Amino acid sequence: MAPKSATKSKAKPSSRKSWKSRAVTRLIEPGSAVECMHCGDRVKFQARLRLQQVICNIYTKGRWDHVEHFHAECYDEADQPFGEPED
What we know:
three-stranded antiparallel β-sheet
């Protein structure tokens, strides 16, 4: 039997990807009930206008923390706090 010090470690590998906050542009879906983090107004669906929103996944210390929503225009006004949004 191998000594305990020679047994396999349960530590997670250090090659684990460190996630960073990021932004994506999406159409505003019907039934959306979120507020814009910049202006505070509701990010709301309007069928004829097909407006877009920016959705940001926020990571803290490499772990997912929360989501923030912006009107597309507000995200630009806020100087794109989480980088250029992906499509």
